[in-house]
């Protein structure tokens, strides 16, 4: 994150719990075009279309579990009182200025990963394709300069992980390579593609899904002191010597260990930041209001990398950062080829037309 705007705005002027993941024994019911994951008792079977809101399905045995998100509309961004709250709880007004202007967004139904893509799921892709591990991964203070440690990769991010932990040390480009493989595995869309039907979520889709019908700061309400029960962040992730946005040690946790939001999505706040498809801009003025990703490069040089390419938006907060960054409206951005140990991704899927 170069330099991660929050760090420079806050610092320059003067970010191992056993898995409690649901132990649901699932059977798999095959309908044409879908593998529907049906929890033994608690989750009702999806109808053959697999498109009812809340339905959980898989398109193939190696595909991630997907949740059908209902069509709807919401107000994207944060209001002035929320910005003031964030500024008084570790942020600054400048750090949250890009969460505006608030605007209405209407979205069709789509599917979103029930969990972040896990290390095990990404490993299956890497094994089958021989996809390279990359040229290093950022960790600690180096992430704020977009620097990488060449010894670190998704296989060795600098802390212990299980196959159920979210994969980290993956760039936006790595995520799209995984998605192209996923489309081929699911035999959807013909040749490998990172655009349809599996893809990265748009920033608007991500925020809509993270809010899950709420208008509060966090999906569980406005109480930041309740964060430990709902998200992994620097207060409960093994961090030591917490200093603003920094801490020593700390790590990811297996997906699904915290309660889901009202849409049935896990870890939409905390654990790892999540890539979206969008080009970053420091204002929502002029972006699509129908849920599509913003692909228009910003005119602001600070919204571009050193080669003039647009920075890509990431969302959700992480295990290393404080609670105020767990808000659904929080935005971040990074170069498309950068990766670090606090960033992963989840996939979206376009649903077939009725």
State mean pLDDT (0 to 100 scale): 86
In the CATH hierarchy, what is the architecture at level 2?
Alpha-Beta Complex
Content of β-strand: 15-25%
Q: In order across it, which strands form the biggest sheet? A: 3-4-7-15-8
Envelope shape: globular
Specify the helix fraction band. Answer: 10-25%
Annotation field: number of helices: 5
Radius of gyration from CA coordinates: 19 Å
What is the total tally of β strands?
15
Instruction: Assign the structural class, choosing from mainly alpha, mainly beta, alpha/beta, alpha+beta, or little secondary structure.
Output: alpha+beta
Number of domains: 1
Query: Uncertain segments of ≥5 residues (pLDDT<50)?
Result: 1-49
Order of helices and strands: HEEEEEHEEHHEHEEEEEEE
- Classified in CATH, the superfamily is paralog of FGE (formylglycine-generating enzyme)
The main pleated sheet reads as: 5 strands, antiparallel
Q: CATH topology, what is it called?
A: paralog of FGE (formylglycine-generating enzyme)
Q: How far apart lie the N and C ends?
A: 41 Å
CATH classification, class level: Alpha Beta
Keywords:
single chain, 354 residues, alpha+beta, paralog of FGE (formylglycine-generating enzyme), 4-stranded mixed β-sheet, 14% helix, globular
